[in-house]
Every structure is written in C-alpha cells, then in structure tokens.
Design brief:
Oligomer: single chain
Number of helices: 7
Structural class: alpha+beta
Helix content: 10-25%
Length: 454
C-alpha cells in the first residue's frame, strides 16, 4: 500500500466523526445561506464600483461579473471545440419612482479540450460601464444558460454618489491584484468590442480586489502584493490639495506614511497608485488612513486590512514540529487522552511506539509515514496560525484539513453575493479522494473556519 494511501486511510477513519460534528455545528449557517452549498452558485459573482463620470453631476458605475466554466453547459462542436452560450440581463431600478433601464447581453465561451468544460479554476471576467444620476438604485441580475435554460438571479441595492456636491471628494479606494492560483482571461466588455477606451477600462478592472463585509464593516484581505488605487476630485482647480496616507497596526502604531501635494491648474481629477506588499509587515489587522485637505476643508476615509503572508500549498518546510496537538486528528480519542496524561518520557515512548506500529517500511529503518505527518504539521503551523486568538496553525480548521489530506489539487476564492463573506474552497480529486472543503474567512479571528466539507 502506498504511503499516501495509508495516511489517507488513517485520516479518513479519524475524520468521519469530526466532520459530522462540524456539519451539525454549521447546520444553522447552511439553512441561512443555502447558496453556499456546493452547487454552482458559488462560482458566479459580481461587484459594483463607483467613480465620477466626465460630468461631475453623474456617477460612473463599473459592473464586473465573474463566472467559471463549470457553471455552464458546453456543447461539442468538434473534437477540438466546445461552446457554451449564456445571456446576462441587468435591470437597474430607482427606489424612488421605480423607473428602470434594462440591458441584455449574449456571450459565448469557447474551449478546445473537454476537461476545460467543467473547470472551476478557469475564471472569465465581464464588465459594463454606465452613467447614472445620483440616487439610490436596485440592480436585478439574471444569468441564463441558453442551452439548459437554467438561470441564476441576484439582487443588490447600491447608491450612485454625487461627486460634485462637495469642493473635494474621492471615490472609495480599491486595491488591484491578480490571483495567481486561478487562470484568468482578460476582462471582456459585455457590449461592443475592444477599442482604446475599453482597453483602458480592462486594464483597471482586471485587477480589482473586492472587499468583503462583516456586519457593516468592509475588509480587504491581502496575501500577495497589490496596488492601491484611488481617484481624487475637486471642483475648483486653482488651489493645491494636501494628501496623506498612514498605515496603522492594531496597536495604533504607525507602520508607514506618505505625504504629498497635488497641484495641476485646470485638473479636476487626480489618480494615485502605490504598491503594498503584505510580506513587508507582520501579519495582522491594519488600518489604512487617507486624508485630503484643502484650506480649511478636509475629508478622511479608512480601509480595514488583514495582511497575511503568501502560503505555497504545494510545498512545505520538512523541519520537525510539535506533533502532540495534531496527533489528535489520527489517534483514537481515548488513546489521545491517555497520551496527554503521561509524563514527558513515557509520552515520547508512546508516540514512538505509535509510529513503529504504523511503519509501512520497517525494514528500511525510516518511517516515511511519520516524516510526511511531521512535514504537514510543520507546514500547518507556519501557514495557518490564528493571529487574533494566538493558536497554532495545526489547531485551525485549515491546518487540520491540510494535516489530514495534504495539499489540495485546486484552490478557489469565490466571493459571496454582495461580497459579505470571503471563501476559500479546497478541492481534492484523486482516485482515492474526491472531496471539497469550503472555508469562510473570519477577520475578527484572523483565520479561515470550516463551513462545509463534502
């Protein structure tokens, strides 16, 4: 029996009662958020971004939708061509007088290989930019597969801001990044073809990182280098603007700051960008403050950031780690309790005996099963630790799944409707294991928590 199969057998037997408990604990969550079950709704999301239009009395609304291949039915055209067709309908209605505008778009996705037709890691991005007068609106969105006639519907309320009602103003700052674990195609305009304008829009939209919401607070989780992007507006371009940025940690200590003067006669819009690398700061919660001043006027905004370092799931440090805690995942409960009651010398002896009995190659001297277990435990402790509750990585839900099942074959980051939750989906698909685990990020705890495993 292969080493991986032995570890998988041990982990599966140990994990059955644990996953049943986790499912019972999250049953109330599942009932409230049925769309989070592992159906295809997870893989269709959209976000809205609000900028000032050319006219200061209107808003430019940037609509960005993403979907994966597995969401649609592909029809074989030839041995090297499969086509999926869908219709995307957008209806925007004012809350005050119920007047509305309707936009309907037909699109195709073409792939050359059959295995790409059900890929969950191939993401397509579509955008549409339109201008609206300042008001409160409701957007109704419907995505229809033109072959199966099945539809997904979403709704979101939003407000088109009046950027011209104050002497100085700015759009909500955003971050731009490109997730490296997914295959992204260049953003495609829903209407028309690429020209100089759409190419410029595409360059910005390709990288937009959506925040997620906990209660009424928005958070950005940043684990790879990003670019901060902000547009600043003023009605009178005769005077200069003072711009300040400060990055503050959760102990209210300044980690970085930048001050500059913006002045260009006749210019009413300034675009500011700068890089932010989370690896340059200790992991944790931060606040990025943005202050704009003009004479006696000032405006300030704050962005809540959760900085985390990039984890490479395909490798891990093989140095020895404390294996007492992670042993509870593969050891019977009564034996683990007994192990913890022993003195240090007797405990070490019991652990050595435990692994001797599970050595697939006793004649070789080394125990590759034990070595792999220690590697996973070490990697979990280094990459999945809880920043807020100060728990080791092996004690977190992601650490536990990694120890039991190793690195996933695929990792996706679908965003829930209205970006209220950030998810991470680990997908395992081998002849011995075909499972998925959904984790939801909890910034108040500084870690992902297991929401469902199937």
């Amino acid at each position: 029996m292969k080493i991986k199969n032995i570890l998988l057998l041990l982990s599966t037997l140990a994990f059955i009662p644990t996953i049943l408990w986790a499912q019972r604990q999250h049953m109330d969550v599942d009932q409230q958020f049925e769309q989070f079950s592992l159906n295809r709704n997870l893989f269709f999301n959209f976000n809205l971004y609000n900028f000032r239009a050319d006219s200061p009395d209107s808003s430019q609304i940037c609509f960005v939708a993403t979907l994966v291949n597995d969401l649609l039915q592909f029809v074989k055209q030839s041995d090297s061509l499969y086509i999926a067709q869908f219709e995307l309908s957008i209806m925007i209605k004012t809350e005050k007088d119920s007047s509305f505008e309707m936009h309907t778009f037909h699109k195709q996705i073409r792939v050359k290989q059959f295995q790409d037709t059900n890929a969950r890691s191939v993401v397509h991005t579509y955008f549409y930019i339109f201008n609206l007068p300042p008001a409160k609106y409701t957007m109704n969105l419907e995505l229809t597969d033109l072959d199966t006639k099945k539809s997904l519907k979403r709704q979101q309320k939003f407000e088109a801001r009046n950027f011209g009602d104050e002497p100085i103003n700015f759009c909500e700052p955003v971050f731009r990044t490109i997730p490296t674990e997914l295959t992204y195609f260049p953003p495609e305009p829903l209407q028309g073809s690429y020209d100089e304008r759409t190419a410029k829009d595409s360059k910005l939209i390709a990288n937009l990182l959506a925040p997620f919401k906990i209660g009424n607070l928005l958070y950005y989780r940043i684990s790879t280098p990003v670019t901060f992007y902000q547009e600043i507006y003023q009605n009178d371009s005769k005077d200069s603007l003072q711009l300040s940025y400060r990055l503050i940690d959760n102990q209210n200590r300044g980690q970085w700051q930048q001050h500059e003067t913006l002045f260009s006669p006749g210019q009413n819009r300034f675009i500011k960008e700068f890089p932010l690398d989370p690896n340059a700061y200790p992991p944790g919660l931060y606040v990025l403050q943005v202050l704009i001043k003009k004479d006696t006027l000032q405006k300030i905004t704050q962005l809540r950031l959760f900085l985390n370092h990039t984890a490479n799931f395909m490798s891990g440090d093989s140095t020895l780690a404390d294996e007492i805690l992670p042993l509870k995942y593969i050891m019977p409960e009564d034996k683990y309790a007994k192990l913890n009651s022993l003195s240090i010398s007797l405990r070490d002896s019991a652990i050595a005996q435990f692994w001797r009995e599970r050595n697939p190659t006793p004649e070789a001297g080394d125990n590759p099963l034990h070595t792999e277990f220690l590697r996973r435990a070490s990697f979990a402790n280094q990459n999945f630790f809880s920043l807020i509750e100060n728990r080791q990585g092996c004690e977190t839900d992601q650490g536990k799944i990694y120890i039991l099942y190793g690195p996933p074959a695929e990792i996706t980051h679908p965003i829930s409707p209205n970006a209220e939750y950030e998810h991470e989906v680990w997908i395992y698909h081998t002849p011995d294991l075909n499972r998925r685990f959904i984790f939801v990020f909890k910034p108040e705890k500084g870690e992902y928590q297991l929401m469902r495993g199937e």
